[in-house]
Amino acid sequence: MDTNDQYGVRHRTPGRIRFVVAAGAAALTLTAGLATPLNPAPHRAGAADDGTKVLTVAVAQSVDSLSPFLAVRLLSTSIHRLTYEYLTNYDAEDNHVVPGLATAWESSPDKLTWTYTIRSDSMWSDGERVTAEDAAWTFNTMMNDPGAATASGSFVANFEEVTAPGPTELVIRLKKPQATMTALDVPIVPKHVWEKVDDFSEFNNDEGFPVVGNGPFVLTDYKADSHVRLRANKDFWRGAPKFDELVFRYYKDQDAAVSALRKGEVSFVAGSPSLTPAQATSLKGEKNIRVNDAPGRRFYALATNPGARAKNGEKIGDGHPSLLDRRVRHALFMAVDRKTLIDKVFQGHAVEGAGYIPPRFSDYFWEPSPEQELAYDTAEAARLLDRAGYRKNGDGRRVGKDGEPIDYRVLCHATDPNDKAVGQYLQEWWGDLGIGVTLNCLDNVTDPWLAGEYDLAFDGWSVNPDPDFVLSLHTCAALPATPEETGATDNFICDRTYDELYARQLAEYDAGKRADIVRQMESRLYDLGYMNVMAYPNAVEAYRTDHIESITTMPARAGNIYGQDGYWSWWSAVPAADSGDGDGGSSSTGVVVGIVAGVVVLAGLGAIAAVRRRATAEDRE
Amino acid sequence: MTSDATSASAGGGTEAAAGPPKDGPAAVGGRVTTAYPRYVAGKVAGAAVSLLAVLVTSFFLFRLIPGDPVKFMTGGRQVSAEQLAMYREQFGLDLPLWQQFTDYCGKALTGDLGTSYQFNAPVVDRMGEALPNTLLLTGTAFVLYTVLGVVLGTRSAWRHGRLGDRIGTGLALTLYSLPSFWLGLLLIITLSVGIGPLPGLFPTGGMESGGEEGFAYVLDVAHHLVLPVVTLVAVEYGQTLLVTRAALLDEMGSDYLTTARAKGLRDDLVRRRHAVPNALLPTVTLIFINLGRTVAGVILVETVFSWPGLGGLFYQALSVPDLPLVQGLFLVFAAAVIVMNTLADLVYPLFDPRVGR
């Protein structure tokens, strides 16, 4: 039986109308009520209602801590660059060292004592003068308190003693010579504020605002995963920033961040770490948007497990023994067509890899000579494998010394589409050589990596203007002391020749000679074949030209904006003359929303009233 | 716990058709029998056991993940043996497993869920910051999609087979099967950025513009709330609609409705006062389950709209992974579902007195 016919016919038409009107009115009333005409549109970046010039940057990375002693993430350390002066800075033009909190520095003849002249025109944002005592206290705290050494303890590991004989004189005594004494990327904090902290391992510096600092910006507000707000420091010794406020706003989804840029809610978006090729393409040609496709500071590499060991000689993990043969490693790398990877995977937003340090750091950039280069040559790769004794069996598979077909486990980051795409190419190219590839794509690769449970792994680091840190990752000293501990090593590489070169460059105070040794280290690393640098991905980012008239890139000629080694980008950004247009748009949008919302609210209320009236009348029948 | 509630609802739904109360309103709020206290005690005891099981599971489950939590925490950075020891002591990882477990249980019972690795802050503090945001978002959406689902489901069943029903059911099914993040992105592109001459009306993400205070802040948050709520409502209302519709269809052939109609009652009254109350039980189950899920938030929607709630926090905690935070969130999510299901069980006798006898 059709119950609908039985019960539904009589009042069908008025009931349906009433229902549709009521449901629609309820939904629209609420929606419209939320899209209130009193606050009709989101605040656009560029200018606030009161004329304050606001620079809004879309970010995705959470702040791990706002304590300079604890923070290690890029966003957090960038905030510290903006809020605290370091002893030195890097010039935006070409990365050379320039004065920061220190105006001058010199080393003693024995290379063990460094004396810095601290500037006298820098003030903390609470009005106190910045002195050498603040710097000495900062370094001493890191040297004496493990909690305070969490983020940057490696910078003070070679310090013997730090003193402040006078308000403008800082003296650091070293245990042994160290060429990186003008590259101490440590935020100097105000002693009179921080000496009250009880436990540096727990204090996150995120409760009392504004945070006392002496950088170009003052941290005024922070709400986890919502925003970080900074105010221009009008008393900054180098000159006040041009924007009144700098806001980092959270967009956990990168497509949403791009939409926010397109709409004008944010002035800048960089992605994490770059915009995807599709996003960059979609933004190119958009009115008022400029895509900055800059040479990056990262390298993208494939690392082989070199037979992971701890300092005490104990074996770690289970890397494939065939990879201990340099000929095998070279063969694998000769079967990688880097040009195809640049064209197909990075879609042109990268440069073909060579040495360990990207070309933007021209002093240290190194390329192999034609004779040295492991150029793409699959035939030669196959010959190398044959010579190494890894021949094909009847099934066309290369077999190891144990007679088993070789199948390499390649660690890849599940969240990085490039890893997966490159991995598929490896499966094809190495498959042609007779070698199997199993991609092991994980959210967290750290654990198998530290445990040495991989054969190859996708690797990448951002390189600083001073290359000491990334070079140090491959010294024997960086290995963990025992398999249970964590070393500073990236890939368990330990080579005496490399170590000797590393020690020489660290003790070499002549910049030219040091750069020469660094290039020798890269050459050695290349010959060892433990790391195949496949590409230098570009830093692809975009900003609104109707918000930002000009902004300094680093290096100045063709460089990136987000995550610079310094505060140049946000400090130098000049508001566009018509940045108020954003507000205009906002206002017009507001009017439209206001009108629509008003009409819908009235219609909704009217409909509800009519329905109620009708229902009451029917009930009275 | 879920199966308890579901089976009760199914029984209530079908049996109610066999012998409903004569007067519609009396069907809701029937007299509770003397067996009710025992029924309540049983359900509460069951919930307590479930909570205990979740507590134990949440501790051991995340310890099955291979690897050293301290190495997770330090992310492969250079860490001296001294620092490793300090972290292990700080997070209680230097203690035997049984002691870690008793400490964990003891602290959990007092509301201490440990310290987040990535935020270096108490898990409870981080969750406390995110919880109100999630409740605002999913709570608003919950009210809307429940009302919309029940109303539309009732109407659809009452006029089942007709064009309106087919369109309404088809639309609900379509929206229900859409990935919420995809719909969210679509709404951002259309209603937030704007298309062609149509201006963008709503923010692309976040919960506030920043810098607002007082009433302006409230309005600002409300404005940011619209698109995520619309996304959630669009995706979720279909489920309530379909359950309500199915339940009501079961009722519609019942004799008592014929009787009611024979008494001369209007069709509208037959539906609202007789059929709907008796068909509500499965919907009540669903509503309580959804209430439990409300606390968990909707991970994808919170991520797409950058809503700083528990769902987004969970996504973030998993990607590290931040074990204490994942563990704490898991505990709270599971507890919310258990509590809500228990509440569903406890109110059942109020709707159908035979349950709990």
From TrEMBL, chain A:
<keyword id="KW-0472">Membrane</keyword>
<dbReference type="InterPro" id="IPR039424">
    <property type="entry name" value="SBP_5"/>
</dbReference>
<dbReference type="InterPro" id="IPR000914">
    <property type="entry name" value="SBP_5_dom"/>
</dbReference>
<dbReference type="GO" id="GO:0030313">
    <property type="term" value="C:cell envelope"/>
</dbReference>
<feature type="transmembrane region" description="Helical">
    <location>
        <begin position="591"/>
        <end position="611"/>
    </location>
</feature>
<dbReference type="GO" id="GO:0015833">
    <property type="term" value="P:peptide transport"/>
</dbReference>
<protein>
    <submittedName>
        <fullName>Peptide/nickel transport system substrate-binding protein</fullName>
    </submittedName>
</protein>
<keyword id="KW-0732">Signal</keyword>
<dbReference type="GO" id="GO:0042597">
    <property type="term" value="C:periplasmic space"/>
</dbReference>
<feature type="domain" description="Solute-binding protein family 5">
    <location>
        <begin position="97"/>
        <end position="472"/>
    </location>
</feature>
<keyword id="KW-0813">Transport</keyword>
<keyword id="KW-0812">Transmembrane</keyword>
<dbReference type="GO" id="GO:0043190">
    <property type="term" value="C:ATP-binding cassette (ABC) transporter complex"/>
</dbReference>
<keyword id="KW-1133">Transmembrane helix</keyword>
<dbReference type="GO" id="GO:1904680">
    <property type="term" value="F:peptide transmembrane transporter activity"/>
</dbReference>
<dbReference type="InterPro" id="IPR030678">
    <property type="entry name" value="Peptide/Ni-bd"/>
</dbReference>
<dbReference type="Pfam" id="PF00496">
    <property type="entry name" value="SBP_bac_5"/>
</dbReference>
<comment type="similarity">
    <text>Belongs to the bacterial solute-binding protein 5 family.</text>
</comment>
From TrEMBL, chain B:
<feature type="transmembrane region" description="Helical">
    <location>
        <begin position="170"/>
        <end position="195"/>
    </location>
</feature>
<feature type="domain" description="ABC transmembrane type-1">
    <location>
        <begin position="131"/>
        <end position="344"/>
    </location>
</feature>
<dbReference type="Pfam" id="PF00528">
    <property type="entry name" value="BPD_transp_1"/>
</dbReference>
<keyword id="KW-0812">Transmembrane</keyword>
<feature type="transmembrane region" description="Helical">
    <location>
        <begin position="325"/>
        <end position="351"/>
    </location>
</feature>
<comment type="similarity">
    <text>Belongs to the binding-protein-dependent transport system permease family.</text>
</comment>
<dbReference type="InterPro" id="IPR045621">
    <property type="entry name" value="BPD_transp_1_N"/>
</dbReference>
<protein>
    <submittedName>
        <fullName>Peptide/nickel transport system permease protein</fullName>
    </submittedName>
</protein>
<dbReference type="Pfam" id="PF19300">
    <property type="entry name" value="BPD_transp_1_N"/>
</dbReference>
<keyword id="KW-0472">Membrane</keyword>
<feature type="transmembrane region" description="Helical">
    <location>
        <begin position="44"/>
        <end position="65"/>
    </location>
</feature>
<feature type="transmembrane region" description="Helical">
    <location>
        <begin position="279"/>
        <end position="305"/>
    </location>
</feature>
<dbReference type="GO" id="GO:0005886">
    <property type="term" value="C:plasma membrane"/>
</dbReference>
<dbReference type="InterPro" id="IPR035906">
    <property type="entry name" value="MetI-like_sf"/>
</dbReference>
<dbReference type="GO" id="GO:0055085">
    <property type="term" value="P:transmembrane transport"/>
</dbReference>
<keyword id="KW-1003">Cell membrane</keyword>
<feature type="transmembrane region" description="Helical">
    <location>
        <begin position="215"/>
        <end position="235"/>
    </location>
</feature>
<feature type="region of interest" description="Disordered">
    <location>
        <begin position="1"/>
        <end position="25"/>
    </location>
</feature>
<dbReference type="InterPro" id="IPR000515">
    <property type="entry name" value="MetI-like"/>
</dbReference>
<keyword id="KW-0813">Transport</keyword>
<feature type="transmembrane region" description="Helical">
    <location>
        <begin position="135"/>
        <end position="158"/>
    </location>
</feature>
<keyword id="KW-1133">Transmembrane helix</keyword>
